[in-house]
Amino acid sequence: MRIVLLPFSRLDSKDIRACVILTLFFGFLAGLAGLGLATRLEQANRLKALLESKSCQKCDLDGARLVKANLKQAKLEDATLRGANLREASLQNASLLRAILSEANLTQANLNGANLDEAILNQVNLTKAELTETDFSGAYLGDSIFQEASMVGVNLSEANLTRANLSLANLRDANLGDAILTRANLRAADLRRADLGGADLNNAILSEANLNRATLPKANLTRADLTRVDLQDANLGGADLSVINFTGANLSRAYLGEADLSQSNLSGVNLSAAILARADLSDSNLSGANLTGVNLRRADLSGANLSGANLSDAKFCRTKMPDGSTNNRDCS
């Protein structure tokens, strides 16, 4: 078969333009391939240097594979690790200040004592991670997973945990002051002695959580699920607890002074020896509740359902009763 080559002079302007475009296009693709290869080689060199020196500040490590990597005390301030695989990595006492770890996999990683202040960790998987005394203050952790994580003494003050999954997590003695936990899942979490002062827990799930001796002054728990929650000896002074279902909850000896419990379901709840001075219980359901020894001085019970409630030894003074009358029995 003979191949006939047309002389260049016989090519019209359209043919020439097409040839030029194809030449430029394939040249562009070749350039991209070369750039991609160079980028991969550059990142490989950065990973090698990181593992050797434990330092890579402001580095681009997006998508890096660092499974079981030893990064103890590593300096990764301002680094980007989007989508990185850090499963079972050792990051104890590492500095990840302002780092970006969006969608990273940190399942079972050890970050005990690490500093992630102001870091971005949206949609990060931290299932069963070790986070004892880790600093997440001011960090963004929206939609992240902390299921069954060990978070004793963790600092999450002012962190954003919107829709985060913290179910079954161990958060004993954690600092969650002023944290945003809107729609977060804290089911069956251990929050004993945790500080949740000023936290926003609007629509959060706290069913079966242990908040024994936790502090939640001025916290917003509007429409949160608090069924079967343990709030014994907890401090909920001034908290917004309106329109909440407390079925099966234990609030014995809890401090609820000036708390808003209006329209909440407290039917059958144990409130024995709780302090409800100046609390708003208007239109709440307290039927069958255990109110023995409760301090109801200056509380508002207008419109509340007290049928079957045990009020033995309860203290009344300037208390507004369900029928609109004022009870001053214990004012002296």
From TrEMBL:
<dbReference type="InterPro" id="IPR051082">
    <property type="entry name" value="Pentapeptide-BTB/POZ_domain"/>
</dbReference>
<dbReference type="Pfam" id="PF00805">
    <property type="entry name" value="Pentapeptide"/>
</dbReference>
<protein>
    <submittedName>
        <fullName>Pentapeptide repeat-containing protein</fullName>
    </submittedName>
</protein>
<dbReference type="InterPro" id="IPR001646">
    <property type="entry name" value="5peptide_repeat"/>
</dbReference>
